[in-house]
Write a structure and sequence with these properties.
single chain; 583 residues; mainly alpha; two-stranded antiparallel sheet; 28 helices; 52% helix
């Protein structure tokens, strides 16, 4: 095929040879179909692109997490030579699927049916597929047959557990026995699991349903069987063992396996939430974040409220002076009353122009400068702006535990993340870490970065976990509290997993995660132990050079004083000084 050299040369390299005649034939045929009023046009059907290229800023950090290592499913990696050895197993699965077709149905007829849906199939893929419709149809049938044979073990497990009726297609073939098993203990089994969930290695679920339909007695039975297969797979791959009754997969609502898993973890934003986001000045269109500007064209907040900080300070001193003035000012109170009276009568508006005064006031009185709190979810453009550093940085799990914070596991999705300041409890969903977790999370984040139209919730979660997990001790704290179920070699491997999830995409604000981080930071920063540590670090440890210089000056002055007093009489200033010489 013409695309083989293209795929082997690189992910986005130009083809080595360009067939102009073939290109013209393809363009003419495509335009003729449009002129004939073909109803399969992807624009008319509204099929959104759902199989994307992994963003380069993510792919560069760990390419093996996004590139299939054992088997290619779909057109993106089909022609890679190192993956082509699995073609014999895919062809064997296609032959077994052919024997299970209903009477009168041939595999060639199924290919012809998919060829008539070529435009729909191509619509799912972001990349231009440089091969014929017949090639694409055969590719979908062969890859889909293997995928269904692999998925049937999860339908068998679900049936054995009493979840749903029906039966799997058949037992696993002896040719596939060394690749898959019901317990998932074999290395090849996990390799296939990781490959089939990668963003660039997806086959549309509607294609799987078309292949499965003639193997069942009716379309309803095929839909139920595929839903049971996919639900079992989601239970296996989902990092969050969320609920006692795992939600059934809706295969007709989602494009492919990775998309279905993503929306199990991050429910779609409803119309009311979208309208609320619009009211806060946040809009997302054509991949850009747009912040709504004020319509009155007024000046900046500093211009509108130039002396807000001094006004708040004066109000504070006037209120305190009002209390002190009603008390008896005799005795020790007179030492307090006079300074308070001076402070209340001071020209604070004039002091406001002193360089650095307003900044100092604002540091002690947040919001006293009259500006809006950027972390306030009700502020205009809150969702459109990227989070501040203070909203990203969070103390580690061991640091939070040292100040009395408890971690509570939740049986839910990401929306259960919260911090309760009253009970000092950090609620986090239970996450299971195993050999497949990193690949699953990385590809979910990649899909979210390419397809999500709202806040990047999963990317924000990985950044949160990257913040609270620094060392193996942090993993141990979360593991003991039941937030992390660690099935890796040790806690160090789990810490390396989270620390390797480098933030490589632009983060967006997620209201419930931002609120939890803000509350945790406020609680942690309000402990006296933390305040003392920060004070010592800022004013003592960071000032050791200045303190050394000051000590040297003091020693020099004392030496000079000793020399002066040895010549002149210093008793009238310092009293009688008796110098004892050590014998």
């Amino acid at each position: 095929m013409a695309a083989s050299d293209h795929q082997a040369a690189g992910r986005h390299a130009a083809p080595l040879a360009f067939d102009e005649v073939r290109w013209v034939v393809q363009i003419r045929r495509s335009l003729q179909e449009d002129a004939a009023g073909d109803d399969d046009d992807d624009d008319e059907d509204g099929i959104p692109v759902s199989v994307f290229n992994v963003p380069k800023q993510l792919h560069v950090h760990k390419p093996e997490a996004y590139t299939p290592q054992l088997i290619a499913l779909g057109p993106y990696h089909h022609w890679r030579p190192e993956l082509y050895e699995m073609e014999r197993y895919k062809l064997a699965a296609a032959r077994r699927a052919q024997r299970r077709l209903r009477a009168g149905v041939k595999l060639d007829g199924l290919v012809d049916h998919l060829a008539r849906l070529e435009r729909k199939v191509r619509a799912y893929y972001h990349r231009y597929l440089d091969f014929s419709g017949e090639t694409l149809s055969w590719m979908m049938v062969v890859d889909g047959a293997f995928l269904l044979e692999f998925l049937q073990i999860y339908a068998a497990v679900a049936a054995a557990g009493g979840e749903g009726g029906g039966r799997p297609l058949r037992r696993v073939s002896s040719r596939m026995a060394h690749l898959v098993d019901f317990a998932g203990r074999k290395a090849a089994h996990n390799l296939i699991l990781r490959d089939m969930i990668m963003l660039e290695n997806q086959v549309p679920l509607c294609v799987l349903l078309k292949i499965l339909d003639p193997q069942c007695e009716s379309g309803d039975e095929a839909g139920e069987l595929l839903a049971r297969m996919v639900t079992g797979l989601m239970k296996e791959l989902c990092p969050f063992k969320m609920m006692e009754s795992f939600p059934a997969a809706n295969v007709g609502k989602h494009a492919h396996l990775l998309e279905l898993l993503y929306y199990l973890l991050v429910p779609k934003q409803d119309d009311d939430a979208a309208a609320e986001a619009g009211a806060h000045g946040s809009f997302r269109g054509e991949g850009y974040d747009i912040e709504e500007q004020p319509a009155d064209g007024g000046g900046s907040a500093e211009e509108q409220q130039p002396a807000a900080g001094s006004h708040h300070v004066k109000q504070l001193f006037v209120a305190v002076w009002g209390i002190v003035s009603r008390l008896k000012t005799a005795g020790p109170m007179k030492h307090v009353a006079k300074p308070m009276e001076v402070a209340a009568k001071a020209p604070w508006k004039m002091l406001n122009v002193v360089p650095g005064f307003s900044t100092t006031v604002a540091s002690f009185m947040p919001g006293a400068d009259g500006s809006a709190n950027p972390a306030d979810p009700t502020a205009a453009g809150y969702l459109a702006r990227p989070p501040l550093m203070e909203q990203i940085v969070v103390p580690s799990a061991s640091e939070l535990a040292n100040v009395g914070v408890r971690f509570s596991p939740t049986a839910g999705d990401l929306s259960t993340i919260a911090f309760d300041a009253k009970t000092a409890t950090f609620h986090l969903p239970v996450v299971t870490l195993d050999a497949n977790t990193e690949v699953v999370l990385r590809n979910l984040v990649a899909y979210e970065a390419a397809a999500a139209s709202g806040p990047l919730v999963l990317a924000r979660y990985t950044e949160l976990m990257n913040g609270i997990v620094d060392t193996d001790e942090d993993v141990a704290v979360l593991r003991r509290r039941g937030v992390v179920v660690n099935r890796m070699k040790n806690d160090g491997e789990a810490a390396k997993l989270w620390n390797g999830m480098t933030r490589s995409v632009r983060l967006t604000k997620v209201a419930f995660v931002d609120a939890a981080v803000d509350e945790a930071n406020r609680y942690h920063g309000g402990r006296w132990r933390v305040k003392t540590k920060r004070f010592m670090r800022k004013y003592v440890f960071s000032s050791w050079q200045l303190l050394t210089f000051a000590a040297a000056i003091v020693m020099l002055l004392l030496t000079m004083l000793e020399a002066f007093c040895s010549v002149y009489t210093c008793s009238r200033w310092f009293g009688d000084i008796t110098i004892i010489n050590a014998e």
